[in-house]
Each structure stands twice: as structure tokens, then as C-alpha cells.
TrEMBL record:
<dbReference type="InterPro" id="IPR001680">
    <property type="entry name" value="WD40_rpt"/>
</dbReference>
<feature type="domain" description="MABP1/WDR62 first WD40">
    <location>
        <begin position="49"/>
        <end position="322"/>
    </location>
</feature>
<dbReference type="Pfam" id="PF24780">
    <property type="entry name" value="WD40_MABP1-WDR62_1st"/>
</dbReference>
<dbReference type="GO" id="GO:0005737">
    <property type="term" value="C:cytoplasm"/>
</dbReference>
<dbReference type="GO" id="GO:0043124">
    <property type="term" value="P:negative regulation of canonical NF-kappaB signal transduction"/>
</dbReference>
<dbReference type="InterPro" id="IPR055292">
    <property type="entry name" value="MABP1"/>
</dbReference>
<dbReference type="InterPro" id="IPR015943">
    <property type="entry name" value="WD40/YVTN_repeat-like_dom_sf"/>
</dbReference>
<dbReference type="InterPro" id="IPR056161">
    <property type="entry name" value="WD40_MABP1-WDR62_1st"/>
</dbReference>
<dbReference type="GO" id="GO:0046330">
    <property type="term" value="P:positive regulation of JNK cascade"/>
</dbReference>
<protein>
    <recommendedName>
        <fullName>MABP1/WDR62 first WD40 domain-containing protein</fullName>
    </recommendedName>
</protein>
<dbReference type="InterPro" id="IPR036322">
    <property type="entry name" value="WD40_repeat_dom_sf"/>
</dbReference>
Amino acid sequence: MPGDGFTIKRRIRNLLRSPSTKIKKNSRENLSSKVTLEKVLGVTTSGNSSLTCDPRSGLVAYAAGCVVVLLNPRKNRQHHIINTSRKTITALSFSPDGKYLVTGESGHLPAVRLWDVAERRQVAELQKHKYGVSCVAFSPSGKYIVSVGNQHDMMVNVWAWKKDVVVAANKVSSKVTGVSFSEDSSYFVTVGNRHVKFWYLEHCKANKSSAPVPLLGRSGLIGELRNNFFCDVACGRGSKCDSTFCITSSGLLCEFNSKRMLDKWVDLRTGVAQSLSLSEEMIFCGCADGTVRAFRPADLSFICTLPRPHPLGSDVSAVTEAR
């Protein structure tokens, strides 16, 4: 009948005006406040910069989308920091005392965020990048945070986070995959595709103005290894504090001396090398197929190859011999 169409339209209008729609919205809000994240399965880490460990507590932090997973490996228990911007976490690093965690993210106008680990809340934010952050790191003094943009951003910022000012900035011309501070916080080193560069902070400490000064950078003298991809870096500690150790994806462990010159290197005898970590006594190199090799920082002499991790699903208690 002709009046049926009019009746249906009127009913739809009344339904849209009904308070039941508001009740549904409120129920969704109440539901979101009750839902909590209990456990994250999997990771979205694509490189070394999005996984870190606090050497004091042993707490492991890694990225899973817009969530930072804080894993206590001894208790196999997770806590979570959720990025309120919903942007994917691409880089993170603990402060020297383990109280804070700094994160970088992807997307347009990404932020470098500082989080209180115990309370899992944001305490500071820096928004000086445009197209994504590939690496972040605390200085050993805890005074500065350095952030390096991805290959589309190319910015290097040194942030005095307690004063909330960028004290120095510059640009890089290569993709950067790793950053490490010297023991005395006087410089840091970035590595990447055919790239090893030393950045010095003397001008930052003398800068009294609020405007950032140009960050002073000097390229490492790579010599015959100039065509390599340097995937990770670690500045020396203790008696080797003047040295800088890098690893190439082709499987070379390299040492640069205090003059930024490539001093020596050793072959890791692996198809691919990926990561580097060191203490005063040892250098650990992460290689393909779960292989980890240990060397002495003093002369790069080989110490041992660590046992490989057991395959998933195997009964560890039944293993009698190390493979």
C-alpha cells in the first residue's frame, strides 16, 4: 500500500532517535574498560633495534604491533605497555638504571616516547621525526636520548629529555640499523648500509640556547670493507673503551680504533651475521641458524660457540648431551 513506505521511514527515524543507540555506545565503552591484555603471542621485531634487555633486572622488552611486551623470563610472566597512538613500535631501549624505556614508532609524524617501566605510563614525548624511527638509545649517563629516522626520514636527533629540548640534530645519507654510545657518553656510533659514523657531543654540552646545534659527525675509515652492510654496533667497555666493534651481514666482526680507523677483523664462518653484544670480557655474535660465537675484545681471539637452542616442542629434560 502507498502508506507502507512512509510508515517504514518513520519507524527508521524513530529508531535512530531512540536512546537505545546511546545505551549501546555506553556498553561498548564499559566493555573496553573491562577488557585487559593478558598475553601476547608472537613478535613484530624486524631487526635488532626492536628487542632489548635490561642487564640489571633481566627484563626483556620487545615489540608486538603497538604493544611493548615486558617479559620476565625467570617467571615467564608478561606485562604490557600499549602505545596510545596505535602506531607500530619499531625501536626501543632501556635506560641505564632500567627505570625507563624509550620507544620509536612508524607512520606519519612518529613520536619518540619515554615510559616509566614500573608504572607502565608515558612520561615524555618528542615529535621531531616525519616518517618513522629506526633506532633509539640512551646515553650511559642517562642524560641524552638519540633517535635515528628510517631511510625516508634520515634525521638524527639528540634529546635532553629531562629538559625536553633537542640539543643537536643532523642528517644521515644511508639506512641505519644500529646505534651505540661510548662508555663516557662523549660520542655515539651509527651503522648501516656502507655506513659507520661517529657523532660527537662536545658542542651539545656547551650549547646554552634552546635551538639545536648541528651534530658533528665523522665517517669511519672502512677501507676495503666499504661495500659491506654493517648491521649492528657496540662501543667497547673497560680497557677497550676506545674501540668500537661492528658486525657485517656477510659475517665479519670488525674493530675500529680511537682514530675511527678499521683496525682488524675476523671471519665468523657463518652465512649471515645479525647481532652483536659485549661485556668487558666477551663479545657475542648472533649468526644464522641460532649460532652464537664468543670472542675476546682484547685481540678478537675466538673463545667458543654456544650450544644452539633446542627445537620447539622438544623435551629439554630428556636431553643428555649438548648439540
